[in-house]
Amino acid sequence: MSPLVARGLRKRFGGDEVVCGVDLEVAAGECFGLLGPNGAGKTTTLKLCLGLTEADAGEIRLLGEPVPARAREARAGVGVVPQFDNLDPDFTVAENLLVYGRYFDLEDAQIAPRIPGLLEFAGLAGRAASKIATLSGGMKRRLTLARSLVNDPRVLFMDEPTTGLDPQARHLIWERLRRLRQAGRTLILTTHFMEEAERLCTRVAIMDRGRIIVEGPPRALIATHIEPQVLEVHGPGVEAWMERARAHAPRVERAGETVFCYAQNVDAAIASLAGHAELVYLHRPANLEDLFLKLTGRDLRD
After folding, report:
1. Chain centroid to CA 266: how far?
2. Maximum Cα–Cα distance across the chain
3. Residues 6+ apart with CB under 8 A from 264
4. Residue 245, φ and ψ in degrees, nearest 5
5. 57-77 burial, b if ≥16 CB within 10 A, otherwise e?
6. pLDDT on residue 187
7. Is the overall model pTM greater than 0.85, yes or no?
């Protein structure tokens, strides 16, 4: 049985429908990424699946339980990493884990033996007695991840788990999430980092304006929906060069001062740069971010 199945989810706030008939099914042991611009409906969809917000229409089963009718029972087997850390500053690192475990009706005697392993997993060994105010942003994020594992969950929901972290902290969390998958946990995450989704997720769904527009393994989606090679060019005179580039690439776009050429082969476009030393270019394979921008547009979302 799939740990999460949702069919026909709809949710309206005021006059706006922010989730418009979403279907999701997440298999056991996979890392599933829900991607989309700001306001696409990602966080609302997660809240619906957890029973934290009630859907206007649709059906949800989480760990076999109907949500929201038995959401509390379902959440007993779920861990949650919220978008913003909500650690209690009045408690030490260990006390945050201990108190959180009580929400799952766990006895202190059950939680205490797990704490050293959770802190080692989070790279916080030796910090059990530290106050939250003494931790860096990366440490707080890792502690929030460790806290979500106190109840030994089968499914882990994560809303933008590495936002605001430096590359070192982000890579450490990625490594820990891979470890969780290897241990058989099911991971469901939202993220604005396309590299993160491409590295971690076995399958992604791209959501926009309340609807899922594509779904599948990242590399398969890239191969299906976008040209395989990308040429990025910027520098003085790039606008004039852009017009000539259209003869060499089927899709040419400009974002700010950078021109993007998408093609099966960009050799001809690169050759057209000869004699233009003022133009700087980068030739690379297409990635998930290219796909995301093609499907959702380059306009800013607030």
Report:
1. 31
2. 73
3. 227, 228, 229
4. -65, -25
5. ebebbbbebebbebbeebbbb
6. 98
7. yes
